[in-house]
Amino acid sequence: MTEQAAVTGTTHSFQAEVSKVLSLVINSLYSNKEIFLRELVSNASDALDKLRFKGIADPSLLPEELRIRIATDEDARTLTISDNGVGMTAEELVENLGTVAQSGTQNFLSQLEQGADMNLIGQFGVGFYSGYLVADRVDVVSRAAGADTANRWSSDGQESFTVEPAQRDEAGSDVILYLKEEHAEIATGWKLRNLIQKYADYVDHPIQVEVERPAPEDEEDAEPTREWETVNQASALWQRSPSDITDEQYEEFYKHLTHDWEPSLARTHFKIEGTQLFRGLLFVPKRPPFDLNDRDRRRGVRLYVKRVFIMDDCEDLLPPWLRFIRGVIDSDDLPLNVSRELLQDSAATRVIRKQVTKKSLDLLESLAKDKKDDYLDLWEKYGTVIKEGFHFDPSYKDRLASLLRFSTSAGDEVIGLDEYVDRMPFSQPAIYYAMGASRAAVESSPHLEGLLDKGCEVLYLTDTIDQWVVDNLSEFRDKKLVSAMVGGLDLDEDDSDDKDAESTPETLGEFGDRIKSVLSDNISDVRKSSRLRKSPVCLVVPDGGVHSHIEQLLRAGNAEMPRTKRILEINAQHPLIMNLQRLHSTDADADELAKWFHLLYDQALLSEGSPIEDPALFASRMTDLMTSATAADAAG
Ligand code: ADP
Known about the structure:
It is built from 20 helices and 23 strands. It is an alpha+beta fold. The chain folds into four domains: 3-234, Heat Shock Protein 90 (2-Layer Sandwich), CATH 3.30.565; 242-374, Ribosomal Protein S5, domain 2 (2-Layer Sandwich); 405-483, 3-Layer(aba) Sandwich (Rossmann fold), CATH 3.40.50; 500-635, Heat shock protein 90, C-terminal domain (Four Helix Bundle (Hemerythrin (Met), subunit A)), CATH 1.20.120.790. The protein has a nine-stranded mixed beta sheet with strand order 1-6-5-4-7-3-2-8-9, covered by helices on one side. A six-stranded mixed beta sheet has the order 16-15-18-17-20-19. The structure holds adenosine-5'-diphosphate.
């Protein structure tokens, strides 16, 4: 039995996920059912693009004109969308229209069950089934390019579909919708034109509908004639001049390209005439794709060469840290037979990527300047991705730096570095930041006490990736970026009135040495602190060291991560420290002291929101000390 015979003339069950999608689509109360046209015309247009691409290697496959035709039959209540594109074999009909890629569907199903918009359908690669929003049966008659037989796929969208031999004169597909009674008006000519203009004007292939031309009056016995008329502009939108394109046209094109249902957040449309001649139309989606952080997923722009579709998800033309941008690049200079491999390390790719990166940065900067709210919205969604740029493309770090936004100690407002520097007091020597796992954790961290007391604003860096930012950005507008958690911070430096010669780090003397020897497994040094006000101690990172929450994260992923011993900073003015110092001067070797020092260390960890290393030991030390304290009280 041939493979063809194996799949034709038989009834096939839909894959379970498809049945679920279908039943949700069929029973959907979703009112905007017209979106089916966008999805099916998109599929037809993709089929034409695929054939045009195949035609580069084998021109004999190409018809005279690639086009989409939409025919209606009011009596039979059908709507037929035909393309003379790449078509499908019987196996492809079974595979493409009976199964779906799992990951996307599950996600779609769960989002739909939570009440998501049916418009999502295309984003998950199940756009074909939107036909069942308006039809109770769909047939697809298809003939693959290069094959000489055709097949009919047919299903009422319940549990199964059939595939059987059929007749078709040329390669391509007819998708025939048997409209539900309540959607009969779609089969009327005027409604159809309207829908095409609304949902498919951006398509760069002609979309034709049949029109009746009355017989010329001067000719006797002449019959009215029917002919196909193109109803869309059928020119690639990105090739038109921006001044000729309306917002609605841009946005409809965007929806076609991305299957998004909301308008984009921002766009840029440009022409580059340098070493590489190309046009670009790029969009920032309002909502991140559901798999933005799935690094295995292909993404990027759609590549055309001289108006011919070459490939989707062309990653090489965009840096990874702009992976949320969608759009089209149409090159005049790349060869038509360009492949992913060829693109990967070609000089042309690098030139295009550089220009595309610059244009994208222009877009982000202008949004940040002119539409602050939109920019903050964008930053909230894509900020963590953009920050990867500091690591992957440090050459853009200055432009990236002004795009950064942070929450700060000054309130709920999210600000940029420019704003920070503009409003910092003249005497403030640096830009201060605190790094931690969350705003709540950094906000209450003892490290900030001194800075806040001095009236300095502190930026909160709470993304893991912020480490990459500060690794690559040491200063901004000639102001150093200084961590509130790092050893080198010396707040006494700029007001010598406060400065007391006794409080230099070295002068903790033997008391400091004792602490250091008791805690030698945990800390690298002991110092007097200039940053503490209310708290007795805190732990700071040695200059150039890794922040502890980053270290914890890294260790969670990689057990080999060495532990950085931090410096214990002591607030010498704190009553607790003064008491301990007194205790030490009466009996330098008292056992009690060691317990207090361990507790101090654990307390430094707790106050910055870090886990303590041995909670059981902490509890037993606490109990011992509480017992002796209460015994002393009871005796007194
Ligand atoms: P998507 O288009 O997102 O992959 P669909 O459910 O819309 O998801 O379509 C599934 C597959 O069926 C397509 O990827 C394509 O391979 C095939 N297909 C659909 N319509 C056509 C058509 N008109 N011509 C050729 N292939 C088609």
